[in-house]
């Protein structure tokens, strides 16, 4: 009951588990947090999987991580809590001295719908070795705390917004617990003694010897080769096979797009695809190496000095993108090769590889031997999601050239939020400059000048080479070829960059119908990134001195988010009742952190229980001509299809009863329920629902407010649709000023986190027992009774 299935696409973290693997080379156990919803069982062969139930329970004792989250009010509905517990637990297992920033980053793949992140982060920070907040109390605060304790037997964190009001005292909901932990030495990285024993890594897995696998299932065959020869033989025998490392692309396609891939190949044990090394003039990155490993490896190269500062430009650019690449759970399994071969137009890493002129190495089987082919990444992307990958070929590695003196690289990404979000536009820019005869004289001139409102680059530098990679502006990751040509051979100056910004609009003439929209904003981002790059390079050429005025420095300042800090102030009633008005953990908290709280999906299936899936409209507006369920009913495990004609009671639902349970004649939006299929399993029901054929006579769709007004399409005039109080016309007539205007909100793509489900159990005499994900049981009972045509007391 612990691991939850939320979004099903690796975006919410509710299914987070810890996967551990023994590395015989280093003789260490490596831990990583993983989204269970995307991890095939075959992919964890030889590994140790720990779920939230495995680290502690309410019976045997909770782990300190579980206890802290519960005591710090870190759960409310509790659906996301097991994933949050495991994300924190895994980070502590792999990090001996966790920091506040590291702990917060560990949660970048976990979403919480209702609790709020402050109490969760407060609980996590008590494990941080560098968290000093609990040690920074002044003697004045200590006196106030003691005084408040004497008055009401509670502790006082600090004065807040309510201070100064008579009879009102304020406190922080987690402060008393922090102080208690401090007094017990359980804060700032000092872990409490675990009531539940730590989970050891099995000794048998330390002795485990990987084997070549071929696992045949009903839908697909899973291959896991151990050598490059075995891999290319499989690729040659099955040209349509899908290589799976993190399953972050194939898994989503199979679940949501119903793609069928009969042959799956996991190259995670092939040494050549996992090797990371520094070769002559380039950094070699194995195509199957997880992004977390690549990030750690590049960080080590730069920090250790194995590559000099002038050589590290390309590596730092990759690191900059990896910092905001998806989430910790995805980076732990996703690989560089998958990011390249899927050829996403909004890829974070492909623009870096394009601008740095990286080289791809492929392998295939030819005449019984492994034959390799090298290809510049700029020639790899052919069209939307179409690449130069030949029949039977696999991507082995990516060679990332190191940079040299007067070579500058910088990567950029703009998304709706920084963490775990796809980009609107990504870019990486690289220039190689040559120093002219007047360079030194120009540098001295710039350093001695006082620059106020403009950026003046040191003169005497000429652009020898320019490569500008972009994502989100074309159907493939691409380079701004016309702009590159304009820049090459030109002086590095503000005038040159201004001309290049104009040329970018020629390279990327985005029209209003561009997929994803925001065409003008995207063009502006391209220009902004180029100008930022100009400031970055000019600042570096001047040695970080006066080439850039203070008003422009924010454009090149690396974003650094300080550790979060929050406080909840509330009124304290020190007398009478023990719970009301006090920061008391709710009763279900310990069940939730232990994964013992049961939700509908956690209930064991009843005998002969059937699962259902809705048949949904695929058109925005139209009349239903015919519904043909024959193909669906012929599928294995399917027991029936039910539509509007099968509803025994009323077919209306909704607060006003103005919507149909199942559309009978006309559909009014995409996704409107038309019917329902029931089958032995949920998967069978979902597939059968897709097989139901619905014929429509389409009608014009009203897609915006203006069209609706012209068509006279309004919700209605009955009470409740219009909110008015008093004489609004007279009120506006008496106003000194009336401000009018329009606000336009675009469409939204829904992201479902906490799943909504119901379990319905027929009983005697038409009774129906319903277990539902609802916060309004009365209305649910009334609706079910109406649709079934029975009295309310029977539901």
Tell me what the structure shows.
With 795 residues, this protein is an alpha+beta fold. Helix content is 29%, strand content 20%. A 5-stranded antiparallel sheet has the order 9-10-15-11-12. Strand 24 (652-653) and strand 25 form a beta hairpin. Helix 18 packs antiparallel against helix 19. Residues 135-143, 149-170 and 438-454 have low confidence and may be disordered.
Summarize the structure.
The chain is α+β, with helices and mostly antiparallel strands and 795 residues long.
CA(first)-CA(last) distance: 27 Å
Main sheet record: 5 strands, antiparallel
Percentage of residues in DSSP E strands: 15-25%
The share of residues in helices is 25-40%
What features would you highlight for this structure?
30 strands; four-stranded mixed sheet; 26 helices; 795 residues; alpha+beta; five-stranded antiparallel sheet
Task: Write the topology of this structure.
Layout: E1 16-23, E2 28-35, E3 48-50, H1 52-55, H2 64-71, H3 81-94, H4 100-106, H5 117-125, H6 139-152, E4 170-172, H7 175-183, H8 203-206, E5 213-216, E6 221-224, H9 228-237, E7 242-243, H10 250-256, E8 263-265, H11 271-274, E9 276-279, E10 282-286, H12 291-304, H13 313-323, H14 328-331, H15 336-341, H16 350-355, E11 359-366, E12 369-376, E13 381-383, E14 386-387, E15 394-401, E16 407-415, E17 423-435, H17 439-448, E18 461-471, E19 478-479, H18 481-487, H19 494-507, H20 519-541, E20 569-571, H21 589-593, E21 611-616, E22 622-628, H22 630-633, E23 638-643, E24 652-653, E25 659-660, E26 666-667, E27 673-679, H23 682-691, E28 693-698, H24 705-710, H25 728-733, E29 758-762, E30 768-772, H26 777-788
Parallel strand pairs: 6-8, 7-8
Antiparallel strand pairs: 1-2, 1-3, 4-20, 5-6, 9-10, 10-15, 11-12, 11-15, 13-14, 16-17, 17-18, 18-19, 21-27, 22-26, 22-28, 23-27, 24-25, 29-30
Helix pairs in contact: 2-5, 12-13, 18-19, 19-20
